[in-house]
Write a structure and sequence with these properties.
- This protein is an alpha/beta fold.
- The protein contains eight helices and 34 strands.
- The chain has an eight-stranded parallel sheet, with helices on one face.
- Helix 2 (351-363) packs parallel to helix 3 and helix 7 (543-560) packs parallel to helix 8.
- The radius of gyration is 25 Å and the shape is globular.
- The termini are far apart.
Length: 614
């Protein structure tokens, strides 16, 4: 009987998988990564989506096959067209749809779900990792909320809209004008070309349910101070009572090494002894257990983590400003990273695919990534925390059209964008939400509000607001853009050969960095987005030719570092659509130069004898 039961279960699972395959089919007209065929349409990206605030037993992943329809903007669908694989954008191959929506249409999703028994009878939150761009959610026909923003996580308490029993209906309406609206949209354009890529519309990160008690922990904020040997933890809660307490425990492995309890309105400061500092070579993370206490009982509890690390500004013996990690100079070197995928666009096919990019860059000898004009999932930042990869986080641009002067110290055609109040509001609201959502990830050490003047506006105001919002990190006001006397950096872009801001003009007042250089192109036949008309800043025919120039460039960096250069960003991690200037092909099947060669070349820049500090 037991064998028959097992066989029946296996048969039922096979039937479900076969049914899913008949409803969804991977589009194969473009190149694909090796992980695309591994995607299970019944359970894509099944991992817990919020590693900085974990309730592991009270959640339900809603990724999978949903109904979809694309209709004119003012209409609601009378029927649904087919199945879409969530969380892949409708334009992507992995969605199974690969259709463009545009500003005059809206994308609708529908899903009939069964809420698991573990979630029933509690407050139920519906979470979205990210949806691009304007989202309205309906539960059993009732609107439960609207969100605008393509890069920040959001949630709605849907408890009051739920029906009795497990069965519930979710409908989602999404509108995204891409580059025909004033909202942040990164490198998406209606007509992809050059450095501008395919639109991303709709859900592109995990959708999930979570059960919470009436009073619960909404968020935490962790601020390490390696000089004072402390970690400060504060919490945000719902519907607390005056006598409720907030308890924080610091764990190293399974051992509690520090703990304290206070009123929920207070921040808790914990002293650490002989703490381990986080760095690219020693990415040590401490665990946290955080509890909301009522009448001596934990009514809600989450786990999290933090790192003891510090990012700051120092001065070398020549009086030049330097970027410091844990009070020591460390040259920060890494690629410009667009975070795009030929099959998933904004979304990696699997967790393994996401890790691959970071792992390959570590093997190449890089210690930093500049996350360019895009925000990633929480699991991406969590992985960088775990492996020790420094991150510079850009704000996705939008509302372009102002003049650009890439040269500091000159007057040319630079201008700040005269944005509408609506456009300014979208930027400020989303930048604030992104910083809030990503604050606890120690791998992020630099915020970059603007790039190459794209939609750059009120630069001093935005930069100083960012610095005040998060004084624990540095702010690169305008990478390669229109320069103002604000922020911590002077950052030029120089293609293809490396350059740097003049230390005699700028080095006494700001950190000098090379925010982009390189762009050496090499198309690999059979691994390109299109067969011809591919593009790079400088093209080569062989990997040996490309590496010879690349190595000359890293040697040049070793000459610039003693003069005052503190960081450099090479363009780029992978090819992206028609750009073929990646170190890896867009489909991730070919690393163009052997890893050992790149590692030997790249690690020259970390020679400690290149810089002497005060």
């Amino acid at each position: 009987m037991k064998i028959k039961t097992i066989l029946a279960g296996i048969f039922a699972l096979l039937i479900i998988q076969l049914h899913a395959q008949t409803q969804w089919k991977l589009k194969t007209d473009k190149i694909l990564t090796p992980w695309a065929i591994q995607v299970n349409p019944n359970s894509p990206l099944p991992e817990y989506p919020r590693p900085q605030l974990v309730r592991s037993n009270n959640w339900q992943n809603l990724n999978g096959l949903w109904d979809y329809a694309i209709v004119p903007k003012k209409e609601t669908p009378t029927r649904f067209e087919g199945k879409i694989l969530v969380p892949f954008a409708v334009e992507s191959a992995l969605s199974g749809v690969q259709k463009t929506v545009g500003k005059d249409s809206v994308l609708w999703y529908k899903n009939e779900i069964a809420i698991s028994s573990a979630l029933q009878g509690k407050q139920v939150l519906l979470h979205f990792g990210a949806v691009d761009w304007q989202t309205e959610v309906f539960i059993n026909g009732k609107s439960v909320g609207i969100h605008e923003g393509g890069y920040d996580p959001f949630s709605f308490n849907i408890t009051s809209a739920l029906k009795k029993g497990a069965a519930q209906e979710i409908k989602i309406r999404v509108w995204d004008p891409t580059d025909e609206g004033p909202q942040p949209r990164g490198k998406q354009v209606k007509k992809p070309h050059g450095i501008w890529y395919t639109p991303v519309t709709g859900i592109w990160q995990t959708v999930w349910l979570e059960a919470v008690p009436e009073s619960y922990i909404v968020a935490t904020k962790q601020i390490p101070d390696i000089d004072a040997h402390t970690i400060t933890v504060s919490g945000t809660f719902t519907t607390t009572q005056p006598t409720d307490k907030f308890k924080v425990e610091v764990l190293e492995g399974n051992q509690v090494i520090a703990e304290s309890t206070s009123a929920t309105a207070d921040a808790i400061v914990l002293k650490l002894n002989n703490e381990k500092l986080w760095s690219p070579t020693n990415p040590f993370l401490y665990d946290l257990r955080i509890s909301l206490i009522r009448n001596n009982k934990a009514i809600d509890q989450v786990t999290s983590y933090f790192a003891m690390r510090k990012i700051s500004v120092g001065t070398d013996i020549k009086g030049i400003k330097r970027i410091l990690l844990n009070n020591q100079f460390l040259f920060q070197f890494g690629p410009l990273d667009q975070g795009w995928w030929p099959d998933g666009l904004y979304t990696p096919p699997t967790e393994e695919a996401m890790k691959f990019d970071v792992d390959e860059l570590k093997k190449m000898g890089f210690n930093m990534i500049r996350k360019h004009i895009k925000v990633e999932s929480a699991r991406y930042y969590n992985y960088c925390d775990k492996v020790g990869m420094l991150l510079w986080q850009d704000m996705p641009s939008g509302d372009l059209g102002n003049g650009w002067n890439p040269n500091p110290g000159t007057i040319n055609n630079e201008s700040e964008k005269n944005r509408t109040a609506e456009s300014e509001g979208y930027y400020k609201k989303e930048w604030n939400a992104i910083i809030e959502a990503l604050h606890n990830f120690p791998s992020i050490v630099v915020w970059v509000p603007f790039n190459e003047a794209w939609g750059q506006f009120k630069t001093i105001e935005i930069t100083e607001w960012t610095m005040k919002k998060d004084p624990s990190r540095l702010v690169n006001s305008a990478s390669g853009g229109n320069f103002f006397n604000t922020g911590h950096f002077t950052d030029i872009h120089s293609y293809p050969q490396p350059g740097m801001p003049r230390p005699d003009l700028f080095g006494k007042t700001s950190i000098l960095v090379l925010g982009e250089y390189g762009g050496l192109g090499l198309p690999i036949e059979g691994n390109t987005w299109q067969q011809k008309n591919n593009w790079g800043y400088q093209s080569f025919k062989t990997a040996d030719e490309l590496f010879a120039k690349y190595d000359l460039f890293t040697t040049r960096l070793t000459e610039l570092i003693p003069l005052g250069l503190s960081a450099a960003v090479y363009t780029q991690t992978t090819d992206v659509e028609v750009e073929v200037n990646g170190l890896i092909t867009y489909d991730r099947k070919v690393t163009k130069v052997p890893l050992a060669q790149l590692f030997k070349s790249n690690t020259k820049v970390y020679n400690p004898s290149l810089v002497k500090m005060k």
